[in-house]
Design a protein that fits this description.
The protein is built from 10 helices and 9 strands. Helix 3 packs parallel to helix 4 and helix 7 packs across helix 10. The strands form 3 sheets. Strands 2-1-3-6-7 form a 5-stranded parallel sheet, sandwiched between helices. A two-stranded antiparallel sheet has the order 4-5. Strands 8-9 form a two-stranded antiparallel ribbon. It folds into 2 domains: about 120 residues, Response regulator (Rossmann fold, 3-Layer(aba) Sandwich); about 80 residues, Winged helix-like DNA-binding domain superfamily/Winged helix DNA-binding domain (Arc Repressor Mutant, subunit A), CATH 1.10.10. The longest helix is centred in the C-terminal third of the chain and has 15 residues. The N and C termini lie far apart (about 45 Å). Strand 1, helix 1 and strand 2 form a beta-alpha-beta unit. About 50% of the residues lie in helices and about 15% in strands. The protein is an alpha/beta fold and about 220 residues long.
Length: about 220
Amino acid sequence: MSAIRVMVVDDHEMIAQSLSRVLGDEADIQVVGTVGSVSEVAHAAVRLQPDVVIMDYKLADGTGIDATERLRSVRPEAKVVLLTGFADDGVLLAAIEAGCSGFITKDQPATEIVSAIRAAQAGEALISPAMLSRLLPRIRKERTGFDPGLTPRELEVLQLLSQGLTSQAIAERLVLSPHTVRNHIQSILPKLGAHSKLEAVAIAVREGVITMGPDRAVHRGEGGA
């Protein structure tokens, strides 16, 4: 299996280089380059073709959210992990809406960043279920009448994803094999135009495919609008 191509975006060169050295020690990770500003991100992404981007939130000429939006306009398949100094709800909600795969705080050890890169590449959502349930109802609704054509089973899987369940937990809940659940997720993502589980859930909530209730998501037409 080829190494995960990682781009580091941080305007502190020393931090970027230090992180690059740590990540470079991992056999399955290849740091393809570092970027120091929002203005450089899109061009660098086209040139470097990263699979995963570690994105600092505070940059000299803007935020990691601004940079993520530019990045995804030229390389939407890249997974973005936001690196932030604190877990502010407003920042994290903006990160979800921009299409980030999740976030990791700067006080986490380097091993957690390595794990986050692998999880992001696998399409996992890097956010706790409690935080996800708190933030999803606050996503801006922009219903366009978009119908992704999901099957009833795919809607069921998507609902459980919105609760922060892992593929293994969904398999156990629905009495399916993990392989079957993965197949459902791989079918859901392109139908929603998403590249990760978190992005799929965010799009589904924004478009009203699922509606967040007090403690669970409901399908459109089954108690939601």
